Amino acid sequence: MRQLLYKSFSRMRGDQLVWTVDLHRLRILCYHGVCEDRVAAEPWVPDCFVAASAFERQMRYLRNNAQILPLSEAIERLYDGSLPPRAVSITFDDGYANNLVIAAPILRQLQLPATIFLSSAPIESGEFFPFLKVKFAQMYSRSDVTKHSTLQYKSSPLDLVMEEIDPFWKEIDAQISSDQRNTLRPLSTREVAAIDSDLIEFGAHSHTHCILRNESWKRREEEILTSIAKVAQWTGRPVRLFAYPNGQRGDFGESDKDLLRAQGIVAAVSGIKGANGPHADPLELRRYPVGLFHDMDGFRAEISGFRATVLSAL
Q: Does 24 reside within a domain?
Protein backbone atom coordinates (compact mmCIF):
# COMPACT_ATOMS: atom_id res chain seq x y z
CA MET A 1 0.00 0.00 0.00
CA ARG A 2 2.77 2.42 0.94
CA GLN A 3 4.63 1.77 -2.29
CA LEU A 4 1.49 2.47 -4.30
CA LEU A 5 1.06 5.75 -2.45
CA TYR A 6 4.67 6.74 -3.11
CA LYS A 7 4.39 5.79 -6.77
CA SER A 8 1.19 7.83 -7.16
CA PHE A 9 2.83 10.75 -5.37
CA SER A 10 5.78 10.55 -7.77
CA ARG A 11 3.63 10.23 -10.90
CA MET A 12 1.62 13.28 -9.86
CA ARG A 13 4.92 15.13 -9.33
CA GLY A 14 4.04 15.71 -5.73
CA ASP A 15 7.70 16.23 -4.90
CA GLN A 16 7.84 19.13 -7.34
CA LEU A 17 4.83 20.70 -5.65
CA VAL A 18 6.54 20.45 -2.28
CA TRP A 19 9.70 22.04 -3.69
CA THR A 20 7.51 24.90 -4.95
CA VAL A 21 5.56 25.63 -1.76
CA ASP A 22 8.16 24.71 0.87
CA LEU A 23 11.18 26.57 -0.45
CA HIS A 24 13.03 27.88 2.56
CA ARG A 25 13.59 25.00 4.93
CA LEU A 26 16.85 23.06 5.01
CA ARG A 27 16.62 19.35 4.25
CA ILE A 28 19.51 17.25 5.51
CA LEU A 29 19.87 13.70 4.19
CA CYS A 30 21.35 11.00 6.41
CA TYR A 31 23.29 8.24 4.65
CA HIS A 32 25.59 5.65 6.16
CA GLY A 33 27.22 3.28 3.67
CA VAL A 34 27.15 2.82 -0.10
CA CYS A 35 27.74 -0.73 -1.33
CA GLU A 36 28.33 -2.42 -4.65
CA ASP A 37 25.11 -3.44 -6.34
CA ARG A 38 26.11 -7.11 -6.39
CA VAL A 39 26.03 -7.35 -2.56
CA ALA A 40 23.07 -5.05 -1.85
CA ALA A 41 20.66 -7.96 -1.33
CA GLU A 42 22.96 -9.85 1.05
CA PRO A 43 21.43 -10.25 4.54
CA TRP A 44 24.53 -8.84 6.23
CA VAL A 45 24.26 -5.47 4.45
CA PRO A 46 22.71 -2.97 6.88
CA ASP A 47 19.32 -1.54 5.94
CA CYS A 48 20.80 1.96 6.26
CA PHE A 49 23.12 1.30 3.28
CA VAL A 50 22.24 2.12 -0.32
CA ALA A 51 23.40 0.43 -3.52
CA ALA A 52 25.82 2.42 -5.67
CA SER A 53 23.43 2.66 -8.63
CA ALA A 54 20.62 3.90 -6.37
CA PHE A 55 22.93 6.44 -4.78
CA GLU A 56 23.92 7.81 -8.18
CA ARG A 57 20.28 8.12 -9.24
CA GLN A 58 19.46 9.92 -6.02
CA MET A 59 22.37 12.32 -6.44
CA ARG A 60 21.36 13.11 -10.02
CA TYR A 61 17.82 13.79 -8.85
CA LEU A 62 19.16 16.21 -6.23
CA ARG A 63 21.44 17.94 -8.68
CA ASN A 64 18.47 18.55 -10.98
CA ASN A 65 15.91 19.53 -8.33
CA ALA A 66 17.74 21.03 -5.35
CA GLN A 67 20.55 23.35 -4.37
CA ILE A 68 23.18 21.25 -2.62
CA LEU A 69 25.21 23.07 0.02
CA PRO A 70 27.94 21.94 2.40
CA LEU A 71 26.26 21.46 5.75
CA SER A 72 28.32 24.15 7.48
CA GLU A 73 27.38 26.71 4.83
CA ALA A 74 23.73 25.64 4.80
CA ILE A 75 23.44 26.05 8.57
CA GLU A 76 25.02 29.49 8.50
CA ARG A 77 22.64 30.58 5.75
CA LEU A 78 19.62 29.02 7.47
CA TYR A 79 20.12 31.32 10.44
CA ASP A 80 21.25 34.48 8.65
CA GLY A 81 18.26 34.37 6.32
CA SER A 82 20.16 33.74 3.08
CA LEU A 83 19.26 30.06 2.61
CA PRO A 84 18.48 29.51 -1.08
CA PRO A 85 15.28 27.77 -2.21
CA ARG A 86 15.27 23.94 -2.20
CA ALA A 87 18.42 23.74 -0.07
CA VAL A 88 19.69 20.24 0.72
CA SER A 89 22.79 18.97 2.52
CA ILE A 90 24.14 15.42 2.22
CA THR A 91 25.58 13.69 5.29
CA PHE A 92 27.04 10.28 6.11
CA ASP A 93 27.27 8.81 9.61
CA ASP A 94 29.97 6.58 11.10
CA GLY A 95 32.82 6.80 8.56
CA TYR A 96 32.74 3.77 6.28
CA ALA A 97 35.56 3.35 3.77
CA ASN A 98 32.94 2.95 1.05
CA ASN A 99 32.14 6.65 1.50
CA LEU A 100 35.55 7.28 -0.07
CA VAL A 101 35.72 4.32 -2.46
CA ILE A 102 32.18 4.36 -3.89
CA ALA A 103 30.31 7.52 -2.84
CA ALA A 104 33.04 10.14 -3.25
CA PRO A 105 33.68 9.50 -6.99
CA ILE A 106 29.95 9.97 -7.68
CA LEU A 107 29.85 13.14 -5.60
CA ARG A 108 32.98 14.43 -7.33
CA GLN A 109 31.60 13.71 -10.81
CA LEU A 110 28.41 15.61 -10.00
CA GLN A 111 30.19 18.29 -7.93
CA LEU A 112 28.06 17.68 -4.85
CA PRO A 113 29.60 18.39 -1.43
CA ALA A 114 28.92 16.20 1.61
CA THR A 115 29.70 15.85 5.31
CA ILE A 116 30.97 12.67 6.98
CA PHE A 117 30.55 12.25 10.74
CA LEU A 118 33.30 10.04 12.16
CA SER A 119 33.20 7.69 15.13
CA SER A 120 36.84 7.99 16.04
CA ALA A 121 37.64 4.69 17.81
CA PRO A 122 36.93 2.39 14.81
CA ILE A 123 38.68 4.86 12.49
CA GLU A 124 41.74 4.65 14.71
CA SER A 125 41.70 0.89 15.36
CA GLY A 126 40.39 -0.41 12.02
CA GLU A 127 37.89 -2.62 13.85
CA PHE A 128 34.25 -2.92 12.85
CA PHE A 129 31.79 -0.48 14.34
CA PRO A 130 30.29 -2.01 17.51
CA PHE A 131 26.79 -2.42 16.12
CA LEU A 132 28.30 -4.47 13.27
CA LYS A 133 30.02 -6.71 15.80
CA VAL A 134 26.65 -7.20 17.42
CA LYS A 135 25.11 -8.07 14.03
CA PHE A 136 27.88 -10.57 13.24
CA ALA A 137 27.47 -12.12 16.70
CA GLN A 138 23.81 -12.67 15.97
CA MET A 139 24.64 -14.22 12.60
CA TYR A 140 27.62 -16.41 13.44
CA SER A 141 27.92 -17.15 17.14
CA ARG A 142 26.68 -20.40 18.62
CA SER A 143 26.46 -18.76 22.03
CA ASP A 144 23.10 -17.75 23.48
CA VAL A 145 24.97 -15.03 25.38
CA THR A 146 25.99 -13.14 22.26
CA LYS A 147 22.57 -13.59 20.68
CA HIS A 148 20.99 -12.06 23.78
CA SER A 149 23.40 -9.12 23.65
CA THR A 150 22.09 -8.10 20.24
CA LEU A 151 18.88 -7.07 21.97
CA GLN A 152 20.74 -4.85 24.42
CA TYR A 153 22.82 -2.57 22.19
CA LYS A 154 20.31 0.29 22.17
CA SER A 155 19.44 0.05 25.85
CA SER A 156 22.68 -0.86 27.70
CA PRO A 157 26.11 0.68 28.24
CA LEU A 158 28.28 -0.24 25.29
CA ASP A 159 31.07 -1.77 27.36
CA LEU A 160 28.67 -4.32 28.86
CA VAL A 161 27.47 -5.37 25.41
CA MET A 162 31.02 -5.70 24.10
CA GLU A 163 32.11 -7.67 27.16
CA GLU A 164 29.54 -10.31 26.25
CA ILE A 165 30.74 -10.52 22.64
CA ASP A 166 34.52 -10.23 23.10
CA PRO A 167 35.14 -13.81 24.39
CA PHE A 168 33.54 -15.16 21.20
CA TRP A 169 34.86 -12.59 18.75
CA LYS A 170 37.81 -14.63 17.43
CA GLU A 171 35.43 -17.43 16.43
CA ILE A 172 33.01 -14.94 14.86
CA ASP A 173 35.71 -12.98 13.07
CA ALA A 174 37.03 -16.13 11.36
CA GLN A 175 33.68 -16.49 9.54
CA ILE A 176 33.58 -12.96 8.09
CA SER A 177 34.15 -12.92 4.33
CA SER A 178 36.32 -10.60 2.28
CA ASP A 179 33.20 -9.03 0.75
CA GLN A 180 31.91 -8.26 4.22
CA ARG A 181 35.24 -6.78 5.33
CA ASN A 182 35.63 -4.63 2.23
CA THR A 183 32.04 -3.40 2.35
CA LEU A 184 31.82 -2.69 6.07
CA ARG A 185 35.30 -1.60 7.12
CA PRO A 186 35.80 1.92 8.49
CA LEU A 187 37.95 4.58 6.91
CA SER A 188 41.54 4.69 8.13
CA THR A 189 43.15 7.80 9.58
CA ARG A 190 45.30 8.00 6.45
CA GLU A 191 42.23 7.91 4.22
CA VAL A 192 40.54 10.63 6.27
CA ALA A 193 43.57 12.87 5.86
CA ALA A 194 43.67 12.23 2.10
CA ILE A 195 40.02 13.02 1.29
CA ASP A 196 39.45 16.13 -0.84
CA SER A 197 38.51 18.81 1.69
CA ASP A 198 36.80 20.88 -1.01
CA LEU A 199 34.35 18.02 -1.52
CA ILE A 200 34.02 16.51 1.96
CA GLU A 201 33.88 18.16 5.37
CA PHE A 202 34.09 16.16 8.57
CA GLY A 203 32.24 16.23 11.85
CA ALA A 204 32.43 14.18 15.04
CA HIS A 205 30.11 11.29 15.91
CA SER A 206 31.32 10.19 19.36
CA HIS A 207 34.40 8.05 20.00
CA THR A 208 33.06 4.49 20.21
CA HIS A 209 29.53 5.03 18.83
CA CYS A 210 27.87 4.34 22.15
CA ILE A 211 24.38 5.73 22.58
CA LEU A 212 24.89 8.62 24.95
CA ARG A 213 21.78 8.14 27.06
CA ASN A 214 22.99 4.68 28.12
CA GLU A 215 26.25 6.00 29.56
CA SER A 216 27.37 7.85 32.69
CA TRP A 217 27.93 11.58 32.38
CA LYS A 218 31.70 11.05 32.63
CA ARG A 219 31.58 8.59 29.72
CA ARG A 220 29.36 10.90 27.65
CA GLU A 221 31.83 13.71 28.19
CA GLU A 222 34.78 11.52 27.18
CA GLU A 223 32.96 10.32 24.07
CA ILE A 224 32.22 13.83 22.86
CA LEU A 225 35.57 15.41 23.74
CA THR A 226 37.66 12.55 22.34
CA SER A 227 35.84 12.41 19.02
CA ILE A 228 36.10 16.16 18.50
CA ALA A 229 39.81 16.16 19.33
CA LYS A 230 40.61 13.16 17.12
CA VAL A 231 38.76 14.47 14.07
CA ALA A 232 40.45 17.87 14.45
CA GLN A 233 43.84 16.14 14.68
CA TRP A 234 43.29 14.03 11.54
CA THR A 235 41.89 16.81 9.39
CA GLY A 236 43.97 19.72 10.67
CA ARG A 237 40.79 21.78 11.02
CA PRO A 238 38.55 22.82 13.89
CA VAL A 239 35.48 20.60 14.26
CA ARG A 240 32.23 22.57 14.18
CA LEU A 241 29.68 19.80 13.50
CA PHE A 242 28.49 16.79 15.51
CA ALA A 243 26.04 13.92 14.95
CA TYR A 244 24.45 12.07 17.86
CA PRO A 245 24.73 8.25 17.62
CA ASN A 246 21.25 6.86 16.92
CA GLY A 247 20.04 10.39 17.55
CA GLN A 248 16.42 9.80 18.50
CA ARG A 249 14.56 11.70 21.20
CA GLY A 250 16.05 10.88 24.57
CA ASP A 251 19.38 9.71 23.12
CA PHE A 252 20.92 13.10 23.94
CA GLY A 253 20.05 15.94 26.26
CA GLU A 254 20.73 19.51 27.31
CA SER A 255 23.95 18.55 29.12
CA ASP A 256 25.33 17.12 25.90
CA LYS A 257 24.35 20.29 24.04
CA ASP A 258 26.04 22.48 26.65
CA LEU A 259 29.25 20.48 26.29
CA LEU A 260 29.10 20.72 22.50
CA ARG A 261 28.64 24.50 22.68
CA ALA A 262 31.63 24.78 25.01
CA GLN A 263 33.74 22.91 22.43
CA GLY A 264 32.80 25.29 19.62
CA ILE A 265 30.25 23.00 17.96
CA VAL A 266 27.86 25.26 16.06
CA ALA A 267 25.41 22.58 14.95
CA ALA A 268 24.50 18.99 15.76
CA VAL A 269 22.30 16.67 13.74
CA SER A 270 19.92 14.04 15.05
CA GLY A 271 18.13 11.04 13.61
CA ILE A 272 14.74 12.69 14.05
CA LYS A 273 12.92 13.02 10.73
CA GLY A 274 12.04 16.37 9.25
CA ALA A 275 13.19 19.60 7.61
CA ASN A 276 14.62 22.60 9.45
CA GLY A 277 13.31 26.14 9.53
CA PRO A 278 15.09 29.25 10.85
CA HIS A 279 13.77 28.66 14.38
CA ALA A 280 15.10 25.10 14.64
CA ASP A 281 17.46 24.34 17.51
CA PRO A 282 20.93 24.28 15.84
CA LEU A 283 22.00 21.51 18.22
CA GLU A 284 19.00 19.33 17.37
CA LEU A 285 18.67 19.53 13.61
CA ARG A 286 16.50 16.98 11.86
CA ARG A 287 17.43 14.74 8.96
CA TYR A 288 15.79 12.41 6.47
CA PRO A 289 17.25 8.87 6.53
CA VAL A 290 17.99 7.07 3.26
CA GLY A 291 18.49 3.31 2.99
CA LEU A 292 17.95 0.13 1.02
CA PHE A 293 14.18 0.45 1.51
CA HIS A 294 14.05 3.52 -0.77
CA ASP A 295 13.36 3.11 -4.45
CA MET A 296 13.20 6.38 -6.39
CA ASP A 297 9.52 6.87 -5.60
CA GLY A 298 10.27 6.33 -1.93
CA PHE A 299 13.24 8.68 -2.10
CA ARG A 300 11.11 11.46 -3.58
CA ALA A 301 8.50 10.84 -0.91
CA GLU A 302 11.14 10.83 1.84
CA ILE A 303 12.89 14.07 0.99
CA SER A 304 9.59 15.88 0.47
CA GLY A 305 8.30 14.75 3.88
CA PHE A 306 5.42 12.83 2.29
CA ARG A 307 6.75 9.45 3.48
CA ALA A 308 6.84 10.60 7.12
CA THR A 309 3.26 11.83 6.78
CA VAL A 310 2.13 8.47 5.40
CA LEU A 311 3.93 6.48 8.10
CA SER A 312 2.46 8.59 10.89
CA ALA A 313 -1.03 8.11 9.47
CA LEU A 314 -0.84 4.31 9.16
A: yes
